[in-house]
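Blinded run. Sample ID left blank on purpose so nobody reads anything into the name before looking at the predicted structure. Input follows.
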Amino acid sequence: PRSTLFPYTTLFRSTLPTSTAIGAPARHHSACPAAESLVPGTTFDHHRLASGVTLAEGTAHDSRGTVDIHVLRVDATRGNVGFTPLFHSLAELSPLTHLASHHRHLLAAVNTGFFDMYGTGAPYGPLVAAGHPVVMAAKPATVVGITAGHRVTDAQVWLAGAVHAGTTNHRLAAINEVTPPRGLSTYTAAWGRDLVDVPRDAVTRTVEHGRIHKLHGRPREVPRHGELLVANGEVAQSWLAAVPAGSRLSVAARVAS
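Blinded prediction complete.
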């Protein structure tokens, strides 16, 4: 089925001159404190941002201080509101206000995920935009997203794809993952200029204008107009190392669910 799934990092953009909204990616590496109810006794101010989009804001007080609460409600079935990821490049830590600036039709930006805070800044978890995988692995993962029918849903998704070079091909293990898993991964221009965290014994190749380059050493930077391939594990390393420099190469990737 045709659907647009936004796992965790997401922007809701409107198709009308005055409407738009957002969300963001995930995985947590540390224990969270016990949950507590902050809503009872809190007074909220309500704002209508657009048809089907409201914002409630309040401040909760307890013995340890105050907590500012912001609740964004979006009626996803409204035709005037759309959803799309919000980022300049994946490997970048930018304040949400910076990412949201200069978007004329933006209604709201929401950070709802987790990132590689002490490394690349890239998001954890799958990210799908306009039906295409931006960050994803072949291992199934649970996501929350918006279907083509404007319904919020959860689903299991995984990456289905392969890298083709001449008459040979190799299964694609991941695209733009923070850490390359075992197998063959690709990093696209969406990753940005930050260096990829390449495993010590991995084989890497750059692809520009549809042809593979064989460089000395192990390139870690994604070309502006190409891709970086990372082979992790003996089988993937042997396949990539055997592809001659100058070979035509293409990557086919789609979201499976």
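Unblinding after everyone has recorded impressions. The chain has two helices and 17 strands.
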